[in-house]
């Protein structure tokens, strides 16, 4: 949590609709006395919070926490080669490989009536009438 002094600077900055750090302390102290925080100001408050040295996280993360998948950089996987001819794009190749490893095959393509019925359920939650 930020100290009171920095919190008042933060609030006055947001009230001024500023885009940069406040110019001087006296200006922000004077304006902080008449600051009201509205929900629309919260994104700007968050930016200034970080600019003034506030922590983004409630706690620092350990090295073990940083090894979790969400903290790892995104890597491009090699697209597997599969023997089936129905795979049209890269995602289909991954799905086909998984199906092959489990000795399964994809379902046949749905006919027009079935597709319309599925679409009706998806859009309205009701069967077509």
Task: State the order of secondary-structure elements, H for helix, E for strand.
Answer: HHHHHH
Roughly how many Å is the radius of gyration?
A: 28 Å
Assess the beta-strand content as a share of residues.
under 5%
The profile of the biggest β sheet is:
none
Structural class: mainly alpha
Q: What is the tally of helical segments?
A: 6
Question: What's the β-strand tally?
Answer: 0
Principal-axis shape: elongated
What's the end-to-end separation, in Å? 58 Å
Number of domains: 2
Describe it:
This protein is an all-alpha fold and 129 residues long. The protein has helices at 4-15, 25-32, 42-51, 63-66, 90-101, 112-124. It has 2 domains: 4-51, no CATH class; 75-129, no CATH class. It contains 6 helices and no strands. The longest helix has 13 residues, at 112-124.
Question: What is the compact description of this entry?
Answer:
The protein has 129 residues and is mostly helical.
Write a concise keyword list for the protein shown above.
129 residues; mainly alpha; 6 helices; 0% strand; elongated
Give the secondary structure arrangement, pairings included.
Layout: H1 4-15, H2 25-32, H3 42-51, H4 63-66, H5 90-101, H6 112-124
